[in-house]
Amino acid sequence: MSLKHVYLIFCVLGAALPLSQFVPWLIANGADLPLFFDQLLVNSISRFFVFDVVISALVLITLIVVESNRLAIKKGWLAIVATLCVGVSLGLPLFLYQRQLKLETDSQSVT
To answer: Nearest to residue 94, comparing CAs of 52, 54, 60, 58?
Structure first.
């Protein structure tokens, strides 16, 4: 199995697992943002994870912008959208997949 296939598997898991928790909550509560943030920030441990994920997302978005420009990855913005819509769990493996495709394409064109 190639590295790009591993990244695709992580994309599926990175989307399916978080959404499997969020979609039922959304169905039960609707787009109730005050309730969402009340439950998200309910205690110190949940805030720890929120801050960790937010910082990780900012670092990932920075990496995506820099590496997309450096390697001329045309659709790097898709990984930013995935990060903002689902989270780092989808955005990171999606970008790594895009990056791997670009590296493989570039190495084939050199040879």
So the answer is: 60
- Separation between Cα atoms, residue 28 and residue 32, nearest integer Å: 10
Distance CA 58, CA 109 (A): 33
Q: Model-level pTM?
A: 0.92
Share of the chain above pLDDT 90, in %: 95
All residues at 6 or more sequence positions from 110 whose CB lies less than 8 Å from its CB, including other chains: none
Q: How confident is the model at residue 108 (pLDDT cuts 50, 70, 90)?
A: confident
Longest Cα–Cα distance of the chain, Å, equals 56
Q: Is pLDDT at 36 greater than 70 in this prediction?
A: yes
Cα separation, 20 vs 25, in Å, equals 9
Q: Which of 73, 100, 97, 95 is nearest to 84 (CA)?
A: 95
Whole-number Å distance between alpha carbons of 91 and 43 = 26
